[in-house]
Amino acid sequence: MPGNPQRTNPNKSDNAEQSVPAPFPLDPSLEVNLQVLSHRIGQSSDIVVRRFTNESLSSLELAFIYIDGLVNADVVNQGVLQPLLETVQLKSEFISATDAFQMIKTQILPIGGVKEGNTLEALLPMLFDGYTLILLEGLQVGMAADTSGWEKRSINEPTSQGVIRGPKEGFTESLRTGTSMLRRRLKTPDLRIEEYKIGQRTQTGVALVYLEGIASEQVLKEIRRRLNAINTDSILESNYIEEFIQDGGLTPFPTIQNTERPDAMAGGILEGQVGIIIDGTPFALLAPSTFFNFFQSSEDYYQRYDISSFLRLIRYSAFFVSMLLPALYIAVTTFHQEMLPTTLLISLAAQREGVPLPALAEALLMELTFDVLREAGVRMPRTIGPAISIVGALVLGQAAVQAGLVSAAMVIVVSFTAISNFVIPSLAIANSIRLIRFVMMFIAATLGLFGIMSFLMVLLIHMAGLRSFGVPYLSPVAPMVPRYLKDIFIRVPLWDMTMRPKTILGEETRRQGEHQQPKPQGEDPV
């Protein structure tokens, strides 16, 4: 398998090489092995070492090592300790350590996962994964029995990507739970799962998930290369992996999707994307991703195509409103008053008559205030967070207008901008718009509409030059492939989407057979 769980990175720096101990081959002496193990992991209170001498097993001396809290105590007692202590053959005076090792591995342990290792470095990662190590006197090889059973969060509804119609379960922090949820949805032998261990200190499990024959081999090769090139101490969340493997270059736009919905990941994998699940976080990654993927919601495919198309157009409109509305207000009120109807111009002039701040400072004050309120609502306890954020926005907005610091029109503009930002289903692209909006406001205050249009052209050129693992960021719009536009700005009926959209690196594959539009009973099909 390309994902070697015990791989080492050949490109480590000198400091990294000094921090990793040299491999220690197991010694025939059990006492020496336990001393080295104790020196390596320290005298931690949660590490349990149980040693059995010749008094309990006639001619054998062995030891069990496991970490309390990472193992299932019932499995350890009933699946490891009890079978070994009650097996009559192991109490014979004539059995050798080699024969006992093979008997324990192949006959005695009623556990599915049993692995071998002849170095301490091969056994320690399994110990920290919840395995129970078994070491025998006289042997330079040990075994690890899968007894993992730590506490984990149950499957709940996703918190950041809710839907009205559709599955209500999301990924958890458990890697194996995530892969099993995908297996339940993709019951095909073509589903491939490759596992990696990344992070010298954390040894975080990372699973690469894809469909063989649908995912591009060139993209897979590049993702594997970038995963193998990661050289870091720790991987604590999916953003660590995202920043290490995403295409280089300074850009505010995300080039990798993140999702906590198994159905969304299954849909992406069926379209030819590659999923990356990281142990310890409910947010998984999907790559390669284009700009238009961030405006697609899994709910688009759970309701009628006309409603889905309407909602998708609203999302694109909300994207432009969130990015441009404050800048347009600043540009028009500062430089281009002639573009406004006379009645509206008089109304705005009357509102701004007592405002001491220019339009840019006014907009910055309100935008920063709203961002502060939003962050405060997130950090506050759940019982009072929403109330404080809503009441704070209402009170501060009304007080600012009455005090003459800002105009009522600016409060409306900032509020509608913030609401439009929440319409976008992907938080990653919504956050990038927040940053671009401030740049647009400064450009509008200095160059007006000319500056806004110039910046939009620069932004479009920048997006056209982006790649996500070799796939153009604006495909299939740039380069234009008309027959692949059926699921970009609108969604056509499912029966009309017979082919999967092809990227520049992939092959066109069939999703379903040809299917004519259903006709009412009694009518002849056209």
From TrEMBL:
Keyword terms, alphabetized: Membrane, Transmembrane, Transmembrane helix
InterPro entries reported for this sequence: Spore_Ger, UPF0353/GerABKA_families
Keyword match Membrane: yes
Domain of life of the organism encoding this protein: Bacteria
Biased composition (Polar residues): 1-18
Transmembrane segments: 313-335, 407-430, 442-464
GO biological process, any: spore germination
Record keyword Oxidoreductase present: no
Region described as Disordered: 1-24
Pfam families: GerA
GO cellular component terms listed in the entry, alphabetical order: membrane
Signal peptide: none
PANTHER family: LEUCINE ZIPPER PROTEIN 4 (PTHR22550:SF5), SPORE GERMINATION PROTEIN (PTHR22550)
Family: Belongs to the GerABKA family.
Protein name listed in UniProt: Spore germination protein KA
Annotated organism of origin: Paenibacillus jilunlii
